[in-house]
Design brief:
This protein is of the alpha/beta class. It contains 17 helices and 16 strands. The protein has two domains: 152 residues, Cobalamin-binding domain (Rossmann fold), CATH 3.40.50; 292 residues, tm_1862 like domain (pyruvate-formate lyase- activating enzyme, Alpha-Beta Horseshoe). The two termini are 30 Å apart. The structure holds iron/sulfur cluster.
Length: 483
């Protein structure tokens, strides 16, 4: 993999608009209107390209893909998106055989070999908009665009106002669901913005790390606010910030939400912030609340201190409890996420995780898929740097886009498979009902009868998005075939 400056063509060079269509394809973005398409679309359109955006989570490939596309670029920001892209590429190649195929985004460089074998000619990662534009310009000029190895760009770029005009309407994407005291559910239309990309942390299991290697890049305030402004004009009533960690740059984040609230006092928002940052910046939590924050997603991952140490999370199990208290004091909802199944998970430690959610009254705050997530080990994962870890895993599996592993206790793997099947079958059921069934499964795996759960043991529902899936969950067969 090569870390480089953008390829030679000038980003400001204007081309005639009839030099061929560029198609940007988003396989999946957790039900959100993708920034990962809107930002490159702005760069390409500014340079005069005719750009078509296709969101495979809402649109059918065959109906939207022009056969005369010159460049087709797929955005793979997460595991599920990459799995869907791998399914889609042969059909894309068949329908537009002369198009140059590019895959860009977080998961592109780490899956370069597989993608190249599928006929992808260019692989881009990191801050890749200038390189994508340069590629389009080369193709438009009839120049060779041969790439020998994937490129990752980490140089600061000049962001443009994302161009969302070619994407499906916000109303078609995931909604925010809010429950009132009486249990009645209301909906809000959700916009999606990013205030930064990359991350300054090096959690061993995280897919951001092999690409950004501890760096993050700020999206300027005026660009983010402009993006929110245009989404508010399109009906957004809530903004979901997609930054890997909103408090990598807390000064920037707070300027952003204060400005957002000043201009749009009726807009609510959510963000993702790690436990370590929530503790370190506890004084900012009331200000998050004041400016319209409804909930914070936080990658807790485990309640086992040894697993947290192995994942290099920089927080302890007790820190999680402290943050639950701080968030409640600030009247902010916390949506914890987990890697429930790792090679170090045991049946008792899994039950301990479920018990902790009951003790903290957090069952209703956790989408059931979180209780079935199995540790993914993508190419380049920092987990491979753990002494002895490579001995516990199999050879890289191109189909699953990761290194397979088996637990030393087969009952743990069986429980994970059963939990995942159950969650896929009960997507429309109340969270507490699915939790109770997983609770019973986990105890049955140990040959125990599950203790009854009191009615008030689940906690209250919190605001959440209607898309229940998760970026590193294994996609369902329906997701893989939906386009
Ligand atoms: S898990 Fe979160 S905090 Fe850790 S490296 Fe990834 S994005 Fe950063």
């Amino acid at each position: 993999m090569q870390t480089a400056n953008p390829i030679s063509a000038s980003a400001s060079h204007q081309i005639a608009p009839d030099t061929g269509k560029v198609v940007l394809i988003n396989p999946y973005e957790l039900g959100r209107q993708p920034f990962g398409l809107a930002e490159p679309a702005a760069w390409l359109k500014h340079a005069g390209f005719d750009v078509i955006c296709i969101d495979l989570s809402l649109q059918k490939l065959d109906a939207c893909l022009p056969a005369d596309a010159v460049l087709i670029a797929l955005n793979v920001g997460m595991h599920t998106a990459t799995r869907i892209a791998v399914e889609a590429i042969p059909r894309i190649r068949q329908r537009a055989p002369r198009a140059h195929l590019c895959v860009y985004g977080l998961y592109a460089p780490m899956n370069a070999t597989l993608l190249k074998n599928l006929g992808v000619q260019t692989i881009l990662g990191g801050e890749c908009e200038p390189a994508l534009l340069a590629l389009a310009q080369k193709l438009a000029a009839g120049e060779s665009a041969h790439q020998s190895e994937p490129s990752v760009y980490l140089r600061k770029i000049q962001f443009r106002l994302p161009d969302r005009s070619g994407l499906p309407a916000l109303q078609r994407y995931a909604h925010l669901l809010l429950s009132d005291e009486a249990g009645a559910v209301s909906k809000r239309i959700v916009g999606f913005a990013e205030g930064s990309r990359g991350c300054k942390h090096l959690c061993r299991h995280c897919p951001v790390v092999p690409v950004y290697e501890g760096k993050f890049r700020i999206v300027p305030l005026d660009i983010v606010l402009g993006d929110i402004r245009q989404q508010a004009a399109s009906g957004a009533e809530h903004v979901s910030f997609g930054d890997p960690d909103f408090f990598n740059g807390p000064t920037h984040a707070m300027k952003l939400v204060r400005a957002l609230h000043d201009e749009f006092p009726q807009l609510s928002y959510d963000a993702t912030i790690k436990i370590q940052h929530l503790l370190a910046h506890a004084d900012l939590l009331p200000e998050l609340k004041r400016t319209g924050c409804l909930f914070v997603t936080s990658a807790v991952e485990s309640v086992d201190d040894e697993v947290l140490r192995l994942l290099d999370k920089n927080h302890s199990s007790a820190d999680f409890d402290r943050v639950v208290g701080l968030m409640r004091a600030a009247k902010l909802a916390l949506a914890p996420t987990f890697v429930a199944f790792t090679p170090w998970t045991t049946l008792p430690s899994y039950i301990a995780l479920l018990q902790r959610l009951l003790d903290l009254r957090l069952v209703e705050a956790v989408p059931p898929i979180q209780l079935a997530i199995r540790l993914l080990i993508p190419a380049g994962s920092y987990l491979l740097r753990l002494p002895g870890f490579a001995d516990r895993i199999g050879d890289f599996d191109a189909e699953m886009l990761g290194y397979p592993w088996r637990h030393s206790d087969a009952r743990v793997d069986d429980l994970q498979a059963a939990a995942q099947t159950l969650v896929a079958q009960t997507a429309e059921r109340p969270r507490r009902e699915t939790f109770t069934r997983i609770w019973r499964l986990a105890h049955a795996a140990l040959g125990l009868a599950a203790p009854a759960i009191a009615d008030d043991g689940f906690g209250r529902p919190i605001p959440h998005l209607s898309e229940p899936w998760y970026c590193c969950a294994e996609p369902t067969s329906q997701q893989l075939q939906s386009f």
